[in-house]
Design brief:
448 residues; six-stranded mixed β-sheet; elongated; 19 strands; Aminopeptidase; alpha/beta; 13 helices
Length: 448
């Protein structure tokens, strides 16, 4: 005797990009109006009119679809759903599914009372891919949201070792060895307590047969006081997120391993706490970098570029074919781009254009800013080879990238300057750490 599996009743969610696509029997119904979409809910299903975003370019259409996926998930507290998609060729339905899944995230590890879970589920053929992406997003968010009294350089390293199962942990450099081999990283972290000592850590993807050497470099400042150039209280309030570049690199590395991308991938993590103590570096200090050039510290709050510089030098010594660094580097980028859109810099025009195209197709925003050489004189120093910060109040994101470029030796290089944080908005109540740019970078590396 055999038993039939119980059929699950699934409610359709119909997505339309034009009013003309909506079935005639629903033309007269009243849709609820939101800024980016209109919605009608009934027992028969949910109709979503996306004509308000149909005139957007492909980047913003895809990005909005992810946000709308979050909003619809929050409206659907329970039940089983599937999607009927009447979309356009330049809009990827995967963004809706990803947004739906991301809406389930919460960070309640340090709350006594947890929110009750709801049980809305959506069925689709991209479930495995979306779940893998969500796993990296959730890890990245968790890491950024964890406060610095709990998560220091060592704890970031341990989290990466636990998460990156398809990677070999090559090792870490610390103490006197770090001071000798990675002097800029050591200098930035030298003011921290013993349990927050600076580390340079390396991971490598297992079983790779590719000869294409890709290096990911993450800025991992577990907390940034600004050093002796101390930040204001308001400026310091979110500085647990200053390891967001490292968190995103770990998340991206995980995705590259999960999707079996055929590259020889190395992950480098620069892990420090920028603290204030009698051992902290001072403005006007001059430090010899791993590369050999002398850097004058114009501002101890421009520490991220210092630690990245030594790591970039190391990647160049290993004959990398592509270097990508990710960092919460400058407020100037946030002023120009806001918090949603990371800026990127690239020394290879063809590579930059490919990344722009992929960003548009994936709906994962990255926006190119120029390596404007004419600003490089702002880094001039009277007493060293150059300073770590420009002498002007303008173009701060560009001068930071120009500083990093000094350590890149004729190798394709992408520098991502990201917020790694999101605020609550009309689509989602979530505020906290965020993965940014890693879906676009994953697709770029697939094609590299």
């Amino acid at each position: 005797m055999t038993s039939k599996r119980k059929q699950i009743k699934k409610t359709p969610i119909s997505l339309f990009f034009s009013k003309d696509q909506i079935p005639k029997n629903f033309k007269a119904v009243k849709f609820e109006e939101y800024s980016s979409y209109s919605i009608y809910k009934s027992d028969e299903g949910i109709l979503i009119n996306l004509s308000k975003i149909s005139h957007f370019n492909s980047l913003q259409r895809n990005y909005k679809l992810l946000l709308i996926g979050q909003a619809i998930r929050n409206l659907c507290q329970s039940g089983n759903f599937f999607v009927d998609y009447f979309g356009c060729e330049k809009t990827d339905i995967k963004n809706f599914f990803l947004g739906w899944s991301l809406a389930s995230y919460n960070f309640e590890k340090y709350k006594s009372k947890k929110k009750k879970k709801d049980y809305a589920k959506i069925y689709h053929h991209l479930e495995k891919e979306v779940n893998s992406i969500c796993e990296s997003y959730f890890f990245t968010r968790d890491l950024i949201n964890t406060p610095a009294n709990i998560l220091g350089p060592y704890e970031i390293l341990q989290s990466a070792k636990k998460f990156l199962k398809k990677f070999n942990y090559i090792g870490s450099v610390s103490g006197e060895k770090l001071k000798n081999q990675f002097p800029l990283i050591s200098a930035v972290g030298q003011g921290a307590d013993k349990n927050k000592q600076p580390l340079f850590s390396e991971f490598r993807l297992k079983k790779s047969k590719s000869k294409k050497k890709v290096f990911l470099i993450g800025k991992g400042v577990s907390f940034d006081t600004g050093g002796l150039n101390i930040k204001t209280g308001a400026g310091m309030s979110l500085m647990k997120k200053d390891m967001g570049g490292a968190a995103n690199c770990i998340g991206l590395a995980k995705l590259i391993g999960e999707f079996d991308v055929n590259v020889d991938l190395t992950l480098l993590l620069c892990l420090v706490e920028n603290s204030i103590s009698k051992k902290s570096i001072r403005p006007s200090d001059i430090i010899k970098s791993r590369e050999g050039s002398y850097v004058e510290v114009g501002d101890t709050d421009a520490e991220g570029r210092l630690i990245l510089a030594d790591a970039i030098t190391y990647a160049c010594e290993k004959n990398a074919d592509l270097i990508i660094d990710m960092a919460t580097l400058t407020g100037a980028s946030r002023v120009a781009m806001g918090i949603d859109v990371p800026s990127f810099f690239c020394n290879d025009d063809d590579l930059a254009m490919k990344l722009i195209d992929i960003s548009q197709k994936t709906g994962d925003p990255l926006w190119q800013l120029p390596l404007w050489e004419n600003y490089s004189s702002q880094l001039n120093s009277q007493h060293a080879d150059f300073k770590n910060i420009g002498n002007s109040m303008f173009g701060g994101a560009i001068t930071a990238a120009l500083f990093l470029q000094k350590f890149v030796k004729n190798i394709p290089w992408i520098h991502i300057d990201l917020m790694a944080w999101t605020r609550a908005n009309k689509f989602s109540s979530y505020e906290g750490g965020e993965a940014m740019g890693i879906r676009a970078l994953l697709e770029l590396i697939k094609e590299f």
